[in-house]
Amino acid sequence: MGLGMGRRLGSPDGMHLYEARCLVDHAGWLGPVPESAFRAILARSGAYLSRVNGRETFTDALSVLLTRPGDDLSVAHPLGWGDVFTGLVVPTEMLAERPDGQVWLGRTGWQGAVDDRLDLRHRALVAACRRGIDGFETAERVHSLLTGLLAASGQDRDDQARAARRRPATHAAHRRLAHRAREVFATGGFRLGLDDVARAVHSSPYHLSRVFHAVTGQTLTAYRNRLRVRAVLSDLQEGAPCLRELAAAYGFADQAHLTRVVRRHVGEPPAAVRRALAPPTS
């Protein structure tokens, strides 16, 4: 949907893997447009709003959006253009052959969460495809990524069921508050204190912390750390040379703090991540 620039990363086993940067600079909704395929959109940087079959969600670098043929999809970019994502199109017959495929076949489109180590595997796959790997390896790594995405979707469905048991009006108000807090971080709020974020969304720190945890299943601190680790990974993947500058840009205490947080979340220090995600040499 919309305008963008991208490139094909591979077409293993009839699947289609690509990466793209959205160039749509339009705050209002575009669509709805009927989806034509089983498609996973893994966000890498930036943020936007998506609406699948009338259900609106805030999509950022911690998110994956999964659609299936016939889903009505709309998007909006109130925070501006430039979000970067990886797309994976999966044939229906391939899903039908997988034991875990019914999770996607039997469900309308939805947004889920991608854990930190699965995100690193996703980014390492993109880097390997950029450098050049054969179709066999690409297929194996894509199937592994898809297994992780479908496993995570089961947890996502459990979370939605628990949320549905809350009072609808309260749940809607809480989702809006959590949405506004995520917008603050998506627009560069990594260096803000908790009081600053709470004031920005017209809440008290206590209420915001409690509501955010209830809606997302994670604390504000955990979410902020995960999001800024994704930002560091994106910059490393594009060749950023200086960890000290990244630490300052994303509100870490210093380079050592950045190293500890990255290692805790993805299991590797930034130096190893840099090697895994290194852009191809010309």
UniProtKB/TrEMBL annotation:
Pfam families: HTH_18. GO terms for molecular function: DNA-binding transcription factor activity; sequence-specific DNA binding. The keyword Transmembrane helix does not apply. Keywords: DNA-binding, Transcription, Transcription regulation. SMART domains: HTH_ARAC. Residues 175-276 form the HTH araC/xylS-type domain. InterPro entries: AraC_XylS_family_regulators, Homeodomain-like_sf, HTH_AraC, HTH_AraC-typ_CS. PROSITE patterns: HTH_ARAC_FAMILY_1 (PS00041), HTH_ARAC_FAMILY_2 (PS01124). PANTHER family: HTH-TYPE TRANSCRIPTIONAL ACTIVATOR RHAS-RELATED, TRANSCRIPTIONAL REGULATORY PROTEIN. This is AraC family transcriptional regulator.
